[in-house]
Amino acid sequence: MISSKEETFSESNSLSKAFRKFTISIILVTCVGFTITASVSIYNSLSEVYLEFLDTEIKTLSEALEQFIQSDLNQFKDHGSLPLVVNSVMHSEHDHSQLRDFLEGLKVQGQPVGISIFDINEKILVSTMSDADNFSIDKLAFNNIVDGNLEHRVEFKKIGDDAYTIYSIPIKYNGLPEGVLVGALPSAFDKFFNALERDEDIHTIVGSGQLIVHELGKPAANSFRRKVNLPIVSGFLEVAVSRSKIQLTIVRLVILIFVVMVLLSGVFLIYFRKLGNKLIVEPQKRLENSRKATREANLKLQKANDELLQFSYRTSHDLKAPLTTAKRLSSFAVKDIDAGNLEEAKNNLNKIHNQMIALEILVADILSLARADYDMESVEPVDFSAVLHEVMERLSGLIDESGCKISNEVNLPTPFIGEKARFSQILENLISNSIKYRDAMKDFCSIHVIIRGNSSKLSIVVEDNGVGIPDEYKDEVFKIFKRFHPDMSFGSGLGLSLVHRHVNFMNGEISFESTNEGTKFEISIPNESEREA
Amino acid sequence: MSIISVLIVDDNENDRYLLSRQLEETGLEIKSFEKTDGKSALEFFEDYDVNRKKYPEHYPPHIVFLDINMPLVNGYEFLQKFAELRTKVDIKACVVMMFTSSEREEDRKKALSFDFVSDYLIKGDFSSEQLREKIVSTSKEPAQ
User: Fold this and answer.
1) Could you give the C-alpha distances from A239 to A319, A474, B123, in angstroms and in order?
2) Residues of A engaging B, defined by a Cβ cutoff of 8 Å
3) B4-139 CATH
4) Number of domains present in the structure of chain A
5) From CA A140, how far away is CA A273, in angstroms rounded?
6) Inside any domain, residue A347
7) B15/A contact by beta carbon, under 8 A
């Protein structure tokens, strides 16, 4: 039965392990899957929103620019025939028809403005100016504008009675900066270039203008002051810049979400593990512990049962044997009397008498042994000096006959609580053993008894200079009916078993050392409060 | 019939005495040795050469009467060691008769499982006549 239960247990144990592995895998897969899905969907939806936003922004800005140009041009209605020169940089392969239509449609006082559109290779794509072929540009400045290294803005300038507007507008194609449109509204080119040459800001800002000024080498005039910044144009650039910023923000957001999900996964894992421990592992541990306790209890019971069997067998044998012997001896005694051999009859009767004494001792010892496992009498402070005295009285015949010298030392600062009868039997058995197994080869027989105690335990030591216990029998000292020197003594063979049982009952410990110099038994018994604990 | 020599191995003095009395009553001519435990009995056989000189006519004994419950070396331990000893010294003619108060069947079987154990006597359970018959039949066997 036990083994089949163990199999079931180990099966359920491996099942629970498999279940835990499965749960952890599911949680991990779910967390990682959720993180990836969430990240992708957030990225997609944000990208869509962002692109929509960009398109709207660009559209708004374009409209605003168109309005501005129109209104700006309207300001200069009074300037008469003002050719508008627009230098634009585009990619030749792209479709510029819309832009061209827009530029060609621009008119000042009903007259078309001069417009030139260059491609990225400085080739004129379209021009409304008759002298467009002569309009050259500074390649370095041109590239700077294309690459976005120069700041683009719109300037409004007025020199004397004449006004100029210089545009530097990034051209976008499919939402990306592609080139720069540069234009000016000069009433007279000379004045315009003079103004440009005088203005340091414009030098650094407007590339193509710089080239022309430089080429013409006109002296600078110092009367140009008015400057207007137009936020709409810079808005185009901000949108472009913000796109990359938003992309970066999205990447950061995704990383953040991933980290949060990983942390959440960790928390879930810990939680599920604790839950698993509570639901599966702990009850299993408790079950295993109780099984272990049951097994141990079974083993103890088995051992006790075996001991009992052996005990009953030996007891019945040892009780029956002297009776059988006495029966036979008495029949021989009768025969001896019939034969007139009275001396032999007397011997036999004496043998019967001794047999009866031994039997009486045996029965008394068996009773003591049987009672040793139960409470014997009331528990009270034990007067060890008195107990020792009583034991000596009982053993006085044996002591006198043996000539053994028995010394003792009792030192108990605090009274020891216990059952007096147990200590009486322990001391009597140990001391009588020491007397019975004295060494006749030694000059004298000496036995020393020490009883000491403190608040936590009691210590009893009985030391003799007897024959000692042979090494090969040291494991069997406390077994019942064991006697190692049958020639030397009498006894039931139960004495040390009884001592052992009493010590066990009081949760104490007993040990011994023995050589041919003598034997020393040491007993240690915890005080009553520790015994109960 | 010549003198039969026996060894009584028993820790109980009274039992040794009773067996000796019964042996006397058989009317046979018997020389008996006594040992009080299995250990000294084994030594009695181990010191074969010494004892052969010491008791030239009666050693080794024809029959060993062996108790089971004894200190130091009990009856079974004696039987095992005795079986080993039979391969070393010339004691093959020596048979063992158990002499015990144990009536347990398992004790009987265990003892009789040794081929040199010829009988299982329960103390106080046999008469001197029965003892005589057993001894006589055992003593005849080696001659056959």
Assistant:
1) 115, 99, 122
2) 313-314, 317, 320-322, 324-325, 327-329, 332, 351, 355, 473, 481-487, 493
3) 3.40.50.2300
4) 3
5) 68
6) no
7) yes
